[in-house]
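Example record used in the benchmark description.
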Amino acid sequence: MSITGSRIRRPGAVSTSPIFSMSSEELGFFQEPEVERMLKVLPSTIPGDGANVNNGSAGAATVDLRGLGTQRTLILMDGRRMTPFNFNGQVDTASIPTALIQSVDVVTGGASAVYGSDAISGAINFIMKKNFEGVELQYNHAVTGDNDGQKDNISLTLGSNSADGKGNIALSVSWMNRDQVLLGDRPLGLLGIDSETGAGLNEFSAGLPPVPGPAGCDGPNVVDFVLGSGSTTAIPTKFALVGYAPANGQFRNDGSIGADCSRFNFNPFNFYQTPAERYSATAIGHYEINDNATVYSTFNYNRQSVSQQVAPSGTFGARFDIPLANPFIVDQARQYMIDAGNDALAAGLLNTPGLTNWIDSNGSGDVDAADYLNVQLRRRTVEFGPRSELFNTDQFSLLTGVEGELYGDWMYDASYQYGETNRVTTRGGYTNLTNIQNALDSTDGVNCKNGVSSCVPLNLFGGLGTITPEMAAYSTATALQTQAYTQEIILLTANGPVEAIKSPWSAEELSISVGYEHRKETGSLEPDECLKQAPASCQGGAGGNLLAINGGFSSEELFIEGILPVLEDVAFAERVDIEFGYRGADYSSVGSVDTWKLGATWQPTDQVLIRVMQQSATRAPNVGELSSPVVTGLDNATLDPCSIANVSNIDAALTALCLSTGMLPAQVGAVQDIISGQVNAFNGSDPDNAPGAEDAETFTAGFVYTADFLDDFVLSVDYYDIQVDDYIGEFSPQEVLDGCYIGGDTVACSKIKRIGGDLTISGSGIELFTTNLKSRQVEGIEVNVDFSVDLGEMGEISFNANVNKYLTHEQQSSNESVLIDCKGQFGTTCSPTSDLRWVQRTTWQLNDFTVSALWRHMSGVDIQSDQIVDTFAQFQSIESYDYVDLFASYLYNEHTKFTFGIDNIFEKDAPVLGGEVGSTSFNSGNTFPSTYDNLGRMYKAGVKFTF
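Model output (structure tokens):
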């Protein structure tokens, strides 16, 4: 037999690396058709993409082992790589057929010497049922205590042995449907609470609805400006003159302009749980031709549709040249703009270097009704409906091979594997900023100055209803993008004993596995023409533009593993084994890299096993990291040190640094602060420094203790230390801002591009190119314990627990950057990373009844130290969390089994934090919905028929 983490086959194999396993019975206790939701509760993981990620979801389900990133967790099925769903090399675990899973092994501490690139934090191996016989029909249903968020899953599995008993084939088909839950469906999500000021918290705490905007400045999901919460891209429209804050104001429903009066409550439109539908089919078969050849094959097909939705789009501070003679502008508003323009002109801020805010059409020398002004209009286009992204994915993979006896005790395995993913993403409800500019350039309200007959003049100068359906049809945009990924693998292995190499103190010889692997992967992204437009695409509110990605790489790899028994049945050592491995790989992208492992197991008694392993691991850059062109987008930051929010702290030294990044003296401390926790960013592979391979050193040491004073008692304790150097990633926007304005780093300052002093105007932003950063380190202790107690006539109780204690969870982008330790912290860099987590399951079985309780614990976490000053006091920490889930089943007869369950039985509420303390993907609806149970109590029921 072989085990996860090694390709060597030998009887009684024991892992030198720590492995946590879950059987199909344990997986069944979750009553969950989505693998990602089962794995994210493990202490060794933090949430990746999934059902509770909305704004930033890729429409997939991923796993992040040790919090080192999903790209550093290798996902396997029966020890084989799975096909990624995108050019970032990520595997969608939704493609794994849960009905056919026999067990799941999680090996931590690196596994690159065995499986190759990407296994830096470890590997998760889904082991399938190979000899399934009979018919199994299963239905599961789940619904929240609020009677929403329903999830239904049906699976049918058929299997049969061949007549001669030499083969087996199994087929499993399934359907899953997951209903949406909107933020607006829960009190916590009704209003966006401000993480810096706490605005909106009192209303939530008192159980009150959001305070509507005042009369004349109201509309759907409009909240009072005094509330201090919500988006400044509002309705009615907000007006700003670029670079001159005193000119800011807001329209009223009647078209006049006054002081700010309302904001837009974007929260209710977003999803706490994204809707999805999935069809899948998997066939697994093998047949023994003779002792020397057994052919096998696995085919997997998955079709999935996932939806994402956020609040209606808007103009989000985009700059427009508007004729002051536009007839949609009422006289009072026109005079307001003219006065603002002349005030800015007198202050020397109307026309600034690199930015023309004014066209003096009649040459009068001052701003008047005949001129054009370049202004920012922040208007929610509620009339367009919500912004949406629909991910439609088709994925299939085919594995075929032959294995058997090569010579004597030597075995061989030769296989070919091909996988392909095709995806179409449809994006709707966005603003077409180019068309809006054309539509605003009108002086009669009927015709556009560009002379295009299809152009419909647009009225943004007021509240709801100023945009007619005809205006909306011209000024909105729907766009498509396609993605494709292919993976081809040829794998040849041979393993067996080397009788000539044997320790004089052991009866067993060296066992080795040698092999060759060829891997070729290609990925592409093809956006339609409107998405390619730069600096912003035709879809305003999408954060920038997209360009085509086409790339790939191939590798040729040779590997060897060995286990040498050194001592056997001697004093103080019933057994001592040495394990080693080496893999050399030649990549078409980064050249030659190598990995190795060296470890030992010592069994002083038959009850104690001591193990230690040192490994070197690598990760070659994926297609996206190698081949992404530079595009604009949005990223998370909390404070612009040069903005009005920090004016009290701006001294001469900081002023000089602000000026060095393109600001004018009058703009320092006067420009608007970061809006909704996001700034413009320039993303893509570093054009001057393409990323190279990552290197990691991994050390694990621990012991396994087994005893018979309790049935099946096993205790394992392991220490792990994973150090990743030259890790591939991007500086965070706040790192760049702080590096420049606090650290005075000229390199960081050179990455900041301002227009009109701002970081949110189209064309401005921060360079965040993908490159090799300094280092990451994760260090901790993991404990596993299992045992059972026979209660005689009262049945049996089994107990198992998995505990993880982080000692270190650090990352540093460069020598000049601040070292960030995510242990026990949360923020824009750190997802909530409890330093102590455990899951503990107690199961009682009596005849046909089974009752099981799962206790999930997460210790408390605090806000990152660099965010304390910008975070409301009540949101600076999250208390420890404990959840209890219950499961029960009854075997009605030999063919029918009923199951029931309640998750979060005590209905523990998610923490209240506002919406800007973390990254947009994971901090949503005023909490972290992927980390904490945000939907309340969940009820589950199912039935399984077996024949």
